[in-house]
Each structure stands twice: as structure tokens, then as C-alpha cells.
Amino acid sequence: MANKGGDLLTEALGGFDFKRILGIADALPMPLALIDRNERYLFCNQALAEFLERPRSDILGHGIGEVIGKAAYEIRKPLIAAALKGERQWFAAQYDHPSRGTVAIQTQYLPQVEADGSISGIVILVTDVTEQRVAERALRESEARFRRIANNAPVIMWVTRLDRHREFVNDEYLSFTGVARDQVNAHEWRDFIHPDDFERVVVESMAGEASRRPFSLEARYKRADGAYRWLSSVSSPRFGPDGELIGFIGAAFDVTVAKEAERELRQQVDERTAEVRESEVRLRAIFDSVREVVVLLEPDGTVIQLNRTEASWRDKRADEAIGKKLWEAPTLSAYPEHKEAVSGAIALAATGVPVTRDIILERAGSPTAYLDVSFRPVADRDGSVMYILFEARDVTELKAAQEQLRQSQKMEALGQLTGGIAHDFNNLLTVVVGGLDLIVRRAEDPKLQRYAKNALEAAERGARLTAQLLAFSRVQRLEVRPTLVAPLIANMRPLLRNVLGPGIEKRIQLDDAAIPVLADPTQLELAVLNLAINARDAMPEGGLLSITTSPVTVSDDPELEAGDYVELSIGDTGSGMPEEVVARAFEPFFTTKEVGKGTGLGLSMVYGVARQSGGTARIESRPGEGTTVRLYFRHAEGSQAKLEAEAVAEESEDQAAEPAARVLVVDDDPDVRGFVVASLEDLGYQVAEAADGEAALTEYRREMPDLVVLDYLMPGMSGADVAREIRQAAPEQRILFVSGYNETDAIRAAAPGAALLAKPFRTEALAACVRKVLSGG
């Protein structure tokens, strides 16, 4: 069969050396093949064999359907038939590749016409365009993001070609000009320029475009309502893949208020006499911006005037700087390491070049300050530099806020990861705990029962670890309610004495104001206990543990909403932690303790509990100076009487379920489902089961159960989707969700009033929860 293919190729190519042709075909990177009229492969090159991941011996002589599969062949069959009639075919399709999954290909069928006009076969050319499609999709998504961002930006934006055709304008552009989107290329932007600015703007625009560099324009433009507004625009060139200029991208800002203020100021200056003009310029330059420290300098760095803005890093004798060089002034003279940088920046600004610098002021006994400073030349009308305006902006708090935000984002990402891990562990532990529980119940061998009980206790310790992971990830279902922190801590005094021992002094100072906060009392106690144990371990030779509470008001915090909080502070006088350990202290599984002495989940649980309650946790520590952990909890709304009433409220007794109640169990995990079904059948219920959402709805309509036990997270149709479908048909249907997460808010939205049982659980917990739901509890 291969020889026949060779004869056809030799004849088609006019007698060229066939082996040479085969060599050339094998060297081609494009998959290529020849089939005869019976749709059998006469030839395929090495690229096609590698693409199909099959040896040529499994391709040559075989039909197309045998090689590419029946489904793919049926799609191509009409195209092959057309090609065998002499019609060249081209098509794009998806192909299920043996190892790469679904790939995108483009295929051509080229009829091979004999001298007598008959079709002897088809040459098949295949091009793999998977990466091209992925790149095109990514480009489209990128363009869509750009459009969304641009259309939400409060500035005018546009993208043009060299022929001034506007490829894109944002919504602000349309709003300002009053032009409809389909008419953006039917108007002339120069028509909007104020007549007094027209000639200057056109000249500057042409010069800027010719420079092939970013350029700025400032002029008055007519708005859609007829009013002229000052716009400051920046245009940047766009270059093609070969470096050719293809157009410009620009943005314009409305600076009318600033220009009017400048115009009024200039008018005032012009109205002054020549004798006070220089003094007026100085004052205008100094007080253009009053939020930063501003100093007016001679071009040689001599201080002429300055403002009186207070700053923690600024010397109180600021006025003594007048007449001195800036680096010799009281403030900067205390930091001689910056003299060279400051004097160099002033020398450069004196030539007309603006200079910006970041400066860190560090001095023993004083807090470190981070400054953004600028040296801006102030030119006379002839362009010569008359003065240098020095501006210093304190960004210490901004940097601290940025660091807090970075840390918060890192903890959010870790929380998502640990939440997912805990969910999977809870599913596994449900099977382990449930299976061991059934063995304990059913086994008659005392030794087997003892082994099973020991294993069950170990599995439940694993469940507590996943609970700590869920607390850190902030998806654990906390019983958050108004809680009084001070009484809770006071009731823990005996426990803390036993945990800490006699070698550690305890100083507990609790705020007398009974301010309720939003917290889970049990988890809060665990958090305090964890922190107390950490403090004890940090003070092996003894020391002082202090616990204090105080009300605080928070504003401008990157992690916390503005409002009133209670700060719970737990501090020790132990060994402390270096900065790099503090940065990772809240990460799950991070610990500095020896193997076997800590899981690394204690502090992460503390952080998770605080964040899930609407607050946060922060650490202050230095080596040798001890550690303080501060927890912030949001004030709870409501009266003290209401809080006390809620604290003493008792839950009603569970009522026995109706005998032989019908229960439908839905869970995609067969092991978890098997345990729940077996447990409920042992309890005397009539049980049906389903492995997914669609099957659950079908089984529900057939069984009409008294209770649906439903896994919340399932692939495809989730538990929330199933619950909505059931409640639409039967609004009063009793539903019990089981989940490794405890997504309380989402469950309430999916099925109001539905109960929730957290994985893992024993048969007793399942039985009690089922009885309570069936009894209407």
C-alpha cells in the first residue's frame, strides 16, 4: 500500500526522486498525508505520525475512520466526499488528542487530479492552531478588561491610528463631547478647541506627534453643553511589532478649577505693585500646597522661606533654616548621610530638571520616617530658574498601611487554600469517624472495640485540626453573638492559673464598661487559651502575662471598617520574635517549636476567629522584649438586657421523630453517603440515596421523603441548587445540609430554615440532628 502511495506521489510530482520527496515531506513541521479514493492512508509524514502519537505502520493502509476515530470521521465525511469530487476543502475543528486533550486544528483537503481529469486521492494538510486560539482568547479578554477599566475611569481616554481614526474612546469622552459612539470618527477634534488656543494647540500637537515621544497639551475645549473647560492631556505613541509608529493613546483631565485659581492668582499678582511682586511670587510658591513641608530655595540651595507645617520628623526650630543651605538646616543637619544626595538634587534642579527622591530618616531614639521629596524648579518668564521649591511629604503611615494591606491579602490567600484543604479532610474524616463509630457499635469483640475507640479518638483529634484550619480560613461556622469580653476572661482565671503554673505572674486589667462585642464565646476562650500557652512557652524561666481590655475607635484602617471596637491585648515578657517570624506567625502550620510540640495552627486559628467575627489580630514583638497580640472585636448592637437574656436562654428539648420516617440521602462521595445511609437504617429510618443533584431530584419526586439529607458542595448541580428546586415544589420540605465548610450565609440563602451538620460527625450527632429536624426543632 505504501508503494502505491509512492507511485501516486511520483506521478503527481512529474518523476522526481520519490525518496527525496519523502525526505522533504518528513522534514516538514506540518502534518501531511495522502489518501486514495477508498479513503485509506497511502502516505503520512513523520509530523502527522507524531501528532497522532502512532507509528506509521498503524496508519498506512488503514481508513481515516480507523485512525482518527468514528466521531471525528463522521464530521469530516462530507468534506472528504466533496474533495474526492475535485472540490478543495478547508475547515477548522477541535480534535481529541490522545495526550493533550482537546486541541484546535485547521485542515485542508487538496484533490489530486490526474492527466485525464480523474481524482486519484486527496492530500491532507493539518495545522495545529491551539496556541494561536489561546492567545487570541487571552487578547480578547485583555481588551475587554481594558475597556471596562477605561469606561469606569473618570478621565477622557482615546486610542487613534496615524490617520486619526479613533479605534476606541471611553464613556467619559462621549459624555464630554456629546458625540454618539457610532459617530466618533465623523467629527473633528480641532472643532472643539477654543479659538484663542487653536493655533498653539495645533502646532504643539504636530510637534509632539513628530517627536515620537509622550507629549502634553493644555487648552480649553468646548463641552457638550457649550461651556469651555480646561483640559490637560497626555498622548503617548503606539508602536507596532516591528517598531513602526501606528498611532497614539491619550488621556485628558479637567483642570478648569486649577486653571481658574491660577488665573485669579495671576490677576492678583499683576495688580500688585512691582515692589511687592517678588514677595508675592514667593508666598504663592510656598502656599500652593500646604499639606506637605514646603521650602523655597535659591538655586544654590539657600533657604528663602518655608511653611509651618508640623511633622514628627521636623525640627521645632524650622525658622532657623532661613539663610542656610537646606542640608545645613536644623532638620536635615541631624542626618548627615543625606547631605550628598540633597545637594546633588538641588544642583540638578537648578538646571531646570525636576528631581524626586525617597528619603528614610533614621535616628536613635526617634521613630523612623519615610519621606517622598521633590525639588521643583520655578522659572521666570524668560525660562531661567529663579527658585527651587522643595516639598517633603511624610508617607510613613501610607507605607505602614500598604504593608498591613499586603499582609492581609497574603492571609486571605492562605485562608482560601486552608479552607479548601480542610473541606477535603472533613469529607475523609467523615468516612473514618463514621466507619469507626459503626464498628464500635456493631463489634462484639472487646479488643476490636477498644482498637476502634482509640482510632476514633485519633480521628476526632484530626477533626479538631481541620476546625482550626477552618477558623483560620474564616469559613468555620461560628456562633457569633453579642458577648461580654471582660466577664468571659474573668471566668477563665482558674483555667489560666492551672495552665500557666505558679512561675508566671498574671496581671489582668479588664475594662469596667460592659460593652458587648460580636464573637463566638467558645472560640474566643480557645483563642485566649492558645495565646496564654504560647506566652507560657516563651517564658520558660517565668515572667509576666498581662491581659487587658479597652474600648477603641478605628478609622482609616485597611483591614477594619470604621467604628467602635474592644481591644483585647495578651502580652508576655518572654523571648520575643524577630521581624521575619512575626511576618509569618499567623500562617497555618508555621511554628518555631520542636517537632511534636506544636502544629502551627494556634495563632492561625486566633487570626481566623478574629477576622470571621469582623475584627482582626495583630502582633507586636521584638527579640528579648516579649510579645503582645492584640485582638479587635466589633461592638454589638443591642442593649445589655437583651444580651443577658440571650445568654441565659435555653434550647427546647428535641422531640422524637416519627417512626419509620422516609429520608433521602444525597452526597457525591460514595463512602460518606454509605456511612450516612447505614447509620440511618440502623436507627430505623426508611432510606433512599442519590449520588448527584439530577438523581436527587428524580429520587425526591419518586419517594417524597420526610427529610432530605443534602451535601452542600457537589460537582455539577450543587446542594444549594437541589434545595432551591425542592423548595419551589415543596416550600415546607425539611432539609438537613451536611458540609465540610459550614457556609452558613449561603445555606440560609439557598434554603431558609434548613439545618446544618458539620463534617465529620458520629452517628449520635447525626441521629440527634435528624430527630430535631423531623420534630420541627
From TrEMBL:
Q: Does the keyword Phosphoprotein apply?
A: yes
Family matches, as SUPFAM superfamilies: ATPase domain of HSP90 chaperone/DNA topoisomerase II/histidine kinase, CheY-like, Homodimeric domain of signal transducing histidine kinase, PYP-like sensor domain (PAS domain)
Domain called PAS: residue spans: 142-201
Q: Which reaction does it catalyse?
A: ATP + protein L-histidine = ADP + protein N-phospho-L-histidine
- Specify the protein name: histidine kinase
Under which EC number(s) is this enzyme classified?
Answer: 2.7.13.3
In terms of superkingdom, the source organism counts as Bacteria
Q: What class of enzyme is it?
A: transferase
Tell me the ranges covered by the Histidine kinase domain, including all copies.
420-637
Which PROSITE patterns does this entry report, sorted A to Z? HIS_KIN, PAC, PAS, RESPONSE_REGULATORY
Q: Which UniProt keywords apply?
A: Phosphoprotein
- Which residues are recorded with the post-translational modification 4-aspartylphosphate? 711
Chain ranges of the PAC domain = 89-141, 215-267, 355-407
Give any GO molecular function from the UniProt entry.
Answer: phosphorelay sensor kinase activity
Using the record's annotation, list all stretches that form the Response regulatory domain: 662-774
Please give the PANTHER family that the UniProt record associates with this protein.
Answer: HISTIDINE KINASE, SENSOR HISTIDINE KINASE
